[in-house]
Specification:
single chain, 265 residues, alpha/beta, 4-stranded mixed beta sheet, two-stranded parallel sheet
């Protein structure tokens, strides 16, 4: 998280508004239109309900105060403008205070399909709708509190829990497999890939998740599913740090992907 970014977040003006250009609003509009089409029949009901609650604009990038009004009303959360990349301390501190970090820049046309660092489209389209859900919001809040209090070596384990839920979480429903993770919901490639039959999809067990290595720059070879969004609330009430200690004793599973330096060979 402390890496450098070629993007620079925009600062709000004296009225607290971010001045987006016509081109930036156009990129947003095209990203939203494409992804709304892509997630049809794939996004979970809680996410779609959340989109309605935040009244997501399609033709322009929303101002943060608009999101704050909706999130405050539903779950007491807020969004907080942050630089393109923040460190773990700040990340956990914000979540612990019910503030979701939103990097206030949008990707360039050259990186329209994919960029590694989270931009405002990923943060808002991917995550903000789910934060209107009480179970998801409580899980994220508890996660922030645990992470903020945790030692550095334990945060690496906690990061896996966030990765396989908030970012890349799936849910088994009566209608079939549905997506709630923002990393999938904001990515056309990953949304299609989940349903391709290629990745392994397993029921979520917290201990297993804590022991599962991942890479951020590839399609995920493995996803974990919950049965209902309330499962996340149940996890938030567990002694997660006891599970972290157990995971450290047992060690990590074998990665389901090649090491980075061998991909090119």
């Amino acid at each position: 998280m402390a890496k450098s970014s070629k993007y620079t977040s925009k600062q709000p003006n004296e009225q607290g508004l971010i001045e987006w250009t016509e081109e930036e609003n156009q990129i947003w509009s095209e990203l939203v239109a494409r992804q709304l089409e892509c997630i049809k029949g794939k996004a979970c009901d809680e996410y779609l309900e959340g989109l309605r609650k935040i009244n997501l604009p399609h033709d322009r990038i929303p101002q943060l105060h608009e999101l704050n009004e909706a999130l405050e009303r539903e779950t007491g959360w807020q969004v907080a403008p942050v630089p393109a990349l923040i460190d773990f301390d700040e990340f956990f501190r914000l979540l612990a205070n019910k503030q979701f970090p939103v990097a206030t820049f949008i990707r360039s046309r050259e990186e329209f399909d994919y960029l590694q660092e989270p931009d405002i489209f990923h943060e808002i389209f991917g995550h903000c709708a789910m934060l209107t859900n009480p179970a998801f919001a409580e899980f994220t809040h508890k996660y922030g509190q645990l992470g903020y209090a945790a030692e550095k070596k334990d945060r690496v384990y906690l990061a896996r829990l966030y990765w396989f839920t908030v970012e890349f979480g799936l849910m088994q429903t009566e209608e079939g497999l549905r997506i709630y993770g923002g990393g999938i919901l904001s990515s056309p490639g990953e949304t299609q890939y989940v349903y391709s039959g290629e990745p392994e999809i397993n029921p979520l067990e917290v201990l297993d998740v804590l022991r599962t290595p991942y890479r951020i720059d590839i399609m995920q070879p493995l996803y974990y599913t919950i049965n209902a969004i309330d499962d996340l609330f149940d996890i938030s009430q567990m002694d997660i740090m006891a599970q972290v200690r157990k995971a450290k004793e047992l060690g990590l599973f074998e990665p389901k992907f090649p090491p980075k330096n061998k991909l090119a060979s």
